[in-house]
Design goal:
Layout lengths: L1 H11 L3 H23 L6 H26 L14 H33 L7 H27 L2 H27 L8 H29 L5 H6 L8
Helix pairs in contact: 1-2, 2-3, 4-5, 4-7, 5-6, 6-7
Length: 236
């Protein structure tokens, strides 16, 4: 679902970073298919070999098409004629913020699914309720973040930042539980996945805060009016 969103928005909005994430996602899926196919027994391989070949061919086609757009010279970051370089930079940061909001949401959802359904460690009923509330919290947080950027409302930006604090606290708690139960199941795969996912989530949040700070400083400088004006110009 996220891949479909990334490739659609990446093409329609000419958003390079989301096309790059789409390419990485497809490559990850192809690598996963290759690993799964390579460990199967010889008796099972002929039954799924056609599907395996189709996955690789379609995935390669997607990668080539997406890279042709990413590396192409026709993608414009700002379509308004005569836009100042400073406004183009603001637009790029705004687009990066929107992308990072989606990346952050995906990271939170993936970590929640990992904790709930992978059997990483036994979780209590209250902890399950907290995770479910966390999903609603993540969607609410992203909605507030989008509204804060689109409407250029500084109070909503601070509310959005405060909403991230419980998520960061939960990441610390998750890492603590993983370290305490490290290797108890005889395998380190799930533990490594949890640590990697938490690290990626922290990196996404860090870059998101940095880009949001840059966008926050540009509030009221005419970018919103230029983007949503039907005439595409800033009133003097």
């Amino acid at each position: 679902m996220f891949c479909i969103y990334y490739v659609t928005r990446g093409i329609l909005q000419e958003n390079r970073q989301e096309l790059i994430v789409f390419v990485l996602s497809i490559l990850l899926e192809m690598i996963r298919s290759i690993v799964n196919f390579s460990v199967l027994s010889k008796d099972v391989k002929p039954d799924i070999q056609p599907r395996f070949i189709v996955i690789l061919l379609v995935g390669l086609f997607h990668v080539v098409c997406a890279l042709s757009l990413v590396l192409g010279q026709n993608m414009m970051a700002f379509r308004v004629g005569g836009a100042l370089e400073s406004l183009q930079l603001q637009y790029n940061m705004l687009s990066l913020c929107f992308s990072l909001l989606t990346f952050d949401l995906q990271a939170q959802l993936c970590l929640t699914v990992l904790v709930l359904f992978s059997g990483l460690y036994k979780i209590s009923a209250p902890h399950t309720i907290i995770l479910v509330i966390g999903l609603v919290w993540a969607f609410l947080k992203v909605t507030i973040g989008i509204l804060a950027i689109i409407k250029e409302l500084k109070p909503l930006v601070w509310i959005f930042l405060l909403q991230n604090l419980p998520e960061v606290a939960y990441l610390v708690y998750l890492l603590y539980k993983v370290v305490v139960d490290w290797g108890s199941g005889g395998s380190y795969t799930l533990e490594a996945a949890a640590v990697t996912g938490s690290f990626i989530s922290v990196v996404i949040k860090s870059v998101l805060f940095w880009s949001l700070y840059r966008v926050y400083r540009s509030f009221g400088q005419g970018l919103r009016e230029r983007m949503f004006s039907s005439y595409g110009r800033i009133d003097s």
